[in-house]
Amino acid sequence: MKSKTEYLIFNTSTRRAFINITPQVANIVTESDIKEGLCLVNAMHISASVFINDDESGLHQDFDRWLEKLVPYSPESYMHNCTGEDNADAHLKRQIMGREVVVAITKGKLDFGPWEQIFYGEFDGKRQKRVLIKIIGE
Ligand code: ZN
């Protein structure tokens, strides 16, 4: 079995952001030279997500509005923020949007369904964050 491990670094200029990371992940799959296997992509921070969905700007606005309705930023309304932090909403948004995705590799490529793309979701940005990519296979 072969494996490859890489890290992507993000430092968004806004508190919340959605970034399509499919091209970076696809490049790492190509570099791995693994033809049949699995590719794990996970956010390494508890205020950021990795998820799969459509790359459509209206949809990203809809995700953002939906998340703000469910768990608004409002720092004064969360127990977690009594510690002096202000990112309780980001912890909760990460939980909803998920930690990781696993994509099959078939014939050396990410084996997506129609319209599937991999996104990094940032909910407490303006600082450095990492995403782990681990590929295993033959
Ligand atoms: Zn926190």
CATH topology: Jelly Rolls
Label the structural class: alpha+beta
Q: How many strands, which pairing sense, and closed or not: the largest β-sheet? A: 5 strands, antiparallel
Number of helices: 3
- Overall tally of domains: 1
Distance between the termini: 5 Å
Describe this structure in words.
By secondary structure, the protein is of the alpha+beta class. The protein has one domain: Jelly Rolls. It is 25% helix and 36% strand. It contains three helices and eight strands; from the N terminus they run ββαββααββββ. It has a five-stranded antiparallel beta sheet, covered by helices on one side. The chain has a three-stranded antiparallel beta sheet with strand order 2-7-4. The chain is elongated and about 50 Å long. The relative contact order is 0.39. The model has no long low-confidence stretch (mean pLDDT 97). The structure holds zinc ion.
Per-chain topology:
Elements: E1 2-10, E2 17-20, H1 22-32, E3 37-43, E4 48-53, H2 57-70, H3 88-97, E5 100-106, E6 109-110, E7 117-122, E8 129-137
Antiparallel strand pairs: 1-8, 2-7, 3-5, 3-8, 4-7, 5-6
Bound molecules: zinc ion.
Question: What are the salient characteristics of this protein?
Answer:
binds zinc ion; 138 residues; three-stranded antiparallel β-sheet; 8 strands; single chain; Jelly Rolls; alpha+beta; five-stranded antiparallel β-sheet
Write a compact overview of the structure shown.
With 138 residues, the chain is an alpha+beta fold. The chain has helices at 22-32, 57-70, 88-97; strands at 2-10, 17-20, 37-43, 48-53, 100-106, 109-110, 117-122, 129-137. The protein has one domain: YjbQ-like (Jelly Rolls).
